[in-house]
Design a protein that fits this description.
Length: about 400
Amino acid sequence: MGLNDIPSSERLHIGFFGRRNAGKSSIVNAVTNQGLSLVSDVAGTTTDPVYKAMELLPLGPVVIIDTAGFDDEGELGQMRVQSTRKALNRTDIAVLVTDAQVGIGQWERELVELFEKKQIPFLIAVNKTDIVSGKVQGENCAYVSAKTGDGIEELKEKLGALADKPGRAARIIGDKLERNDLVVLVVPIDESAPKGRLILPQQQTIRDILDADACAVVVKDTELGDTLKTLGKKPRLVITDSQAFASANRQTPPGIMLTSFSILMARYKGFLDTAVEGAAAIDRLKSGDRVLISEGCTHHRQCGDIGTVKIPGWLKKHTGMEIDISTTSGREFPDDLSQYSLVIHCGGCMLTPREMSLRMKCASDQDVPFTNYGVAIAHMTGILKRSVEIFPHLYNKL
Ligand code: SF4
């Protein structure tokens, strides 16, 4: 996989925030050595956040987010500020750019409050130190001049130190495998499968199995039973696409553990325990209850009609109730979930772990159960317990 193939959801997202004309875009350009942003001396040149994937040493693959001025005015300005606030949900590390001549004011304090509320580690880049030495002092400050380039390397080093903090080292399945373990992956090839390639969670899982010095065998759902019979060794685990769960369950003999990509991705993104707990809410649904089905991207082809047709159909069949379904996709996710009895989210393969955990936290803060496609499907097909056997702390609870 070349550097440019590293998916956005696996890159560290660094957001640059500040008021208009603090020199935010010039700092972004100095840090990245590229004309990433539109820079002019006219306050408020950046409109919607600009996202750019790149290699940034010493950090590695990152996405740089350049945002509009946080003090923007007027109707259009307010819309920009809203997009800036949304960009916070995608930010792993924030850089607050201030003007050394102006110091910290209301806007900067508001941004710092937001970083703290969303638990985003941040640095303050005190810019224009070529004109005046910084009024702002503190351990998390970096003194820079976008104009002369002074302090930019130190800023990058400080960003590197923030990025080294723990939290992004989760494995997909490799930590549960031993050397030479055999794992069978079930990948249905139907009209929703992309032409000529595997989708991201499948690629990531294969890579993680190889990293554990284990062996991956990939089959279509129609070939699983025969393949299991012909293998000379008992597989440690079968991992299936959620849509083939019921068929994979029938074809996999007892004694071989079974789970799904979706369940593994929920764990990788840090919300499997919540999702397993949330799935129990399906059995408590009553007619007229509202359920939010949310997808993390708008190009649904690889998830097909699972959120819009299949899950609503299975919910109705499983509960026997008339459930009121709403759907969202892409970056849209409502702040107010109080009207919902349950949120069922997709695997979130295009979302960063931080975005997924913010969505989950948003639901738990409002006491709304939160689960995902794979866990909900496993629950409704009666195989949730079997599908978490590889995670004993969950298995023993069900
Ligand atoms: S982000 Fe969600 S809807 Fe989009 S491809 Fe990934 S799992 Fe499917």
